Amino acid sequence: MAVLTLDREKLRTNYIRMKELFEDRNVSWGVVSKLLCGNKLFLQELINLGINEIHDSRISNLAMIKRLKRDVQTVYIKPVSKKNVGKMVEFADVSLNSELETIRMISAEAVNQEKNHKIIIMVETGDLREGVMGEQLIDFYQEVFQLPRIEVIGLGTNLNCLNGVMPSTDKLIQLSLYKQIIELKFGREIPWLSAGTSVTIPLMLSHQLPQGINHFRVGETLYFGVDLVKEEIIEGMHGDVLELHAEIIELQEKPLLPTGILAANPSGEIAEIDESLYGKTSFRAIVDVGLLDVSPNYLFPKDPEIVILGASSDMLIVNLGTNQKGHKVGETLSFSLKYMGALGLLNSAYIEKAIV
């Protein structure tokens, strides 16, 4: 079985670095755990870091977090479906919302459970995923603040999640102005401007984050140490907290080109033929992981001489060239990952998870 490992010390290093960056700028933040898919082993590592605010998009994951540490503030980070309102109020202390009718249901459920529920009102700033349109925000807020057991603790936004619209100083200033208008009109303080995700961190690092933006929701940069604008590892952080290790289950010297009549494979792909490769061979290894677990597009062999050729549902095929390093069946090859690759692996029941 292939193994996805989480490096405890590298995760801690990344966490400490992020914590220092935010503390220096007087910005609060929570860790987004949805990548971990509710894995108890990995969630415990987050909690062991001393994190007191964890965000997730699955209620079952928030329930697991509450079982591991009751006093962690849990934040549900997508609009909740009607049938899940009760469970969400039970396991989430805070939720992100953009539908008035949904907030009414949350209020009724909070009354029923005799607990207060905090919300962040999401505002549309151009990426066209979730969010209230700016011109509707005043009327929306006026309705919300009258609801029992509901406390608005922030305005927020998401960028670069659907259409790739990047955060900018102008867009975040716009959000800050919405907050000021609401506070002046209704005489109520809104503590958080939650405009930050991992893709907003580069604005902070380049000192372009507008005043007032005081809350971030961070996942990818914590686990991968990456500046998502420059696509580089941030100084002092690690990009390989998570790695895949998969066993070679076949290794043979074979032709570089297939033979026979070609048609589409089960993925709908048709092999391209480079006639200059006829008659040539290489050592090809089959590795014990496949499309059911992860797309090859998100895998990167740690050995730069290894090339990924393709995958079927349960097998990954790589080119070892002349196999100068003498790889053998039963050995393990290691791969670094992109975020979506790690997400697929963590969501797969066929991949072992381990701490190193």
TrEMBL record:
Cofactor dependency: pyridoxal 5'-phosphate
Entry annotated with the keyword Lipid biosynthesis: no
InterPro entries per UniProt: Ala_racemase, Ala_racemase_N, PLP-binding_barrel
Keyword terms, alphabetized: Isomerase, Pyridoxal phosphate
The Alanine racemase N-terminal domain, residue ranges: 7-224
Protein name listed in UniProt: Ornithine racemase Orr
Organism this protein belongs to: Algoriphagus jejuensis
Lineage: Bacteria, Pseudomonadati, Bacteroidota, Cytophagia, Cytophagales
